[in-house]
Amino acid sequence: MITRNNAIRNIAIIAHVDHGKTTLVDGLFRQSGLFRADQQLDDRMMDSMELERERGITIAAKNCAVSWNGVRINIIDTPGHADFGGEVERALSMVDGVVLLVDSSEGPLPQTRFVLRKALALKLPVIGVINKIDRKDARPEEVLNELYELFIDLDASDEQLEFPVLYAIGREGVAMYNIGDKSENLSPLFETILKYIPGPSYDDELPFQMLVTDLDYSDYLGRLAVGRIKNGRVHGKESLVCIGSDGTPKNLRATKLQVYQGKQMIDVESAEPGDIIVMAGIEDATIGDTICTKDNPVALPRIHVDEPTVVMNFSINSSPLAGREGKIVQSRRIKERLEKEALRNVSIRVEDTEDRDSFIVKGRGEFQMAIIVETMRREGFELTVGRPEVIMHEENGVVYEPIEEVHIDCDENFMGVVTEKLSFRKGRMSNCVNHGTGRVRLTFSVPARGLIGYRDEFLTDTRGTGIMNSTMSGYEEYRGDFVSRLTGSLIADRAGNAVAYALYNLEPRGTLFIVPGDPVYEGMVIGEHNKDNDIDVNPTKEKKLTNMRAANKDENIILTPVRPMTLEHALHFLREDEVLEVTPESLRIRKTELSAQKRYAMGGGRKRI
């Protein structure tokens, strides 16, 4: 018999990046009575990772819980960036409804469409919240109409179209039913959640079943399984089984049960159907496995996520400077770390290659890959990574490639250069809207490979004022080749330390990446050439000294300041025959084949300077 546990609500907060999800969760925390009135709290409490705080985005979905009028509300704060869509899909499998946040100025954007499509497909009820209505350029009525249009465009049912709408200022912790209402807190949002989001349903005749939707690790308890109880109740120290992808039950004992209270986890003796719990005592469970009773082991449907679209090669650091700056350099440790990442992230896949020191990693986008690399270098790893490449599909001899729907908001003066650049990358404009404010909204259909390396160009072309968002729209026939980079590389032809005199004489050749004193080696890329060919240069060349007196003093050498190379910029810069050496302290671009003589023999005749 199907019944509902009305003492619990499970919700996910979904939105496009930077529309205010994490800030709204802060307000729910503060007003639910979890903290003392005089307690000092950080902003964006749910962004616990160092990288999340630095970049101001949510990378991993996180669980928390608050109480309101005796009802326990489990909240999942999801990422808003398209590359972390796997986290959103994983989170939606645990909840009974979603709070869809939309910026009152920007309106629904690509990731809004992506997360809403997933929620509607799962028949989840939606609460619409138009946030940041205090912005000077807020247009809440128009945004509400755009939201209805999005629901209709996604084939929402009549029932789903009748979603409640609230207006909020997340930063001030205020929500209201109508614009202009007086409100001092988020009570309208709490009340709407209790009214419109149903309690979790379960069959009271079935024994305990739980789908593992996340993994955590504790130094004291070992691996932890996080998931929602589908049916039945569970008690601590109970003997259970775990059913993996092969369908074979493995025995385990739940050594400890915990539930969320705020951000923290508290121990409980038992848990009810529909609750989100953390279970210790499971060593071999992975995301998608079912934990159930020994007597009646029945597996739940596994979590399905969209296929990866980008592939990158990870290998050991094989440069002449290997082992100087990092603590972890062995291929075995790199593989273990990547497999650990794949365990916790359902959209990541790791595969072996013929070379035992090299591994293939597949994921959703180059930004997701950059986050993995950045996390590893901060943990002390040294490694070499290749250029991100898109994954093609072949059917009946026809090659298909992933296509992104790109939404651009920029000043109308930059419309020409943006259109030209994306057309060169095989993009096609599908929509253009001019609100008469001096800014235009453009929509393009662009191959995913055309966007790799374009984001930096876009910010330069729009003087940093443009906003670009994209989401995967499907696969189409291969649109043809285009040049990924119109410039060549300046390549060091010997080992040593860079000298100011040599770099000063190389400046007219292009843009340099190094400063005097930096170590260099043969095959290392030290700059971007102005022309489309590569040239070998000597950055260690010193000025010849003579015993002749000079009538005038030598001029002081003043070099153009070098812009620090970021990880994303370095990955975008790479050509097919280049790789990136990553250490905790440095990022160095180098040729796959270091020897200039061998590169010349392979057909890439290089000019020497």
What's the arrangement of secondary structure elements?
Blueprint (H helix, E strand, L loop, with lengths): L1 E3 L3 E8 L5 H11 L18 H6 L6 E7 L2 E7 L7 H8 L4 E7 L6 H12 L4 E6 L8 H14 L4 H4 L3 E5 L4 E3 L10 H10 L4 E3 L5 E10 L3 E10 L2 E2 L3 E5 L5 E5 L2 E6 L2 E5 L1 E2 L4 E5 L9 E4 L16 E6 L15 H14 L4 E4 L5 E6 L2 H13 L4 E3 L3 E2 L2 E3 L2 E14 L3 H10 L3 E7 L4 E9 H4 L2 H8 L5 E11 L11 E4 L3 E2 L2 H7 L3 E3 L6 E2 L4 E5 L5 E3 L29 H7 L4 E5 L4 E5 L4 H6 L5 E2 L1
Parallel strand pairs: 2-4, 2-5, 5-6, 6-7, 30-35, 35-38
Antiparallel strand pairs: 1-9, 3-4, 7-8, 10-11, 10-19, 11-18, 12-17, 13-14, 13-19, 15-16, 15-18, 20-22, 20-23, 20-24, 21-22, 23-36, 25-26, 26-28, 26-29, 27-28, 30-34, 31-33, 32-34, 36-37
Helix pairs in contact: 3-4
Walk me through this protein's architecture.
The chain contains 15 helices and 38 strands. Strand 3 and strand 4 (71-77) form a beta hairpin. Residues 35-41 and 43-48 have low confidence and may be disordered. Helix content is 22%, strand content 33%. The strands form 8 sheets. Strands 14-13-19-10-11-18-15-16 form an 8-stranded antiparallel beta sheet, with no helix packed on it. It has a 7-stranded mixed beta sheet with strand order 3-4-2-5-6-7-8, with helices on both faces. Strands 20, 21, 22, 23, 24, 36 and 37 form a 7-stranded antiparallel beta sheet that branches.
